[in-house]
Amino acid sequence: MSESGGSPPPRVLLVWDAPNMDMSLGSLLGARPTSTFRPRFDAVGRWLLDLAGPEATAEATVLRHIAMRADEGVLQHVVVASGDGRAFREPLEELVAKGAGVTVIGFREYATFALQSEVIEFVDLEDIDGVFREPLPRMTLDTLPDGGAWLPPFRSLRSLLDPRR
Predict the structure, then answer these.
(1) What is the Cα–Cα distance from 92 to 98, expressed in whole angstroms?
(2) Which of 4-13, 26-35, 54-63, 117-126 has the lowest mean pLDDT?
């Protein structure tokens, strides 16, 4: 209970799986991310506050904290930022069954478990306004323009002639 004697405000929690998000971003870019392609956490924070709304309290947290808030009965929504959150699927679906909303933010190329879930909402990190200073250099069959696209090679074809060391 809150100090005023009423019930505590609903909670919206963000879990940021930093190593996994960084690894997924590096895989997406084909190289270690530079500052140009690192997510801006202030933009993620504003998005989280907007998701929470004026009546809820937003918190960035780790998994044990989620269980504590769920046990208190004030858990309204959980946001998990993970490049590959398959390990989160079962506990997140249990939270949905208990009445909490669940959103996974990450990269659509790696979050098929969330995209295919009927109860988990998915938001691509790049779709959150202001998270990246520049658009990510993403090219998939789904995003390929009708006219095709020229993609820079990862290495020269001549490298195929060099014996591997």
Answers:
(1) 10
(2) 4-13
Residue 159 located in a structural domain: no
**Confidence band for 149, pLDDT divided at 50, 70 and 90:** confident
pTM over 0.70: yes
| CATH number, domain containing residue 28 | 3.40.50
Count of domains for the chain: 1
Domain contains 22: yes
Residue 152 lies in a domain: no
Chain mean pLDDT for the chain = 85
Helix 89-97 / helix 63-72 crossing angle, nearest 10 deg:
10
Burial profile 11-47: b = 16 or more Cβ within 10 angstroms, e = fewer: bbbbbbbeebbeebbeebeeeebeeebebeeebbeeb
Contact status, residue 84 vs residue 22, Cβ threshold 8 Å:
no
Tokens 């939270």 belong to 95
pLDDT at residue 86 tops 70: yes
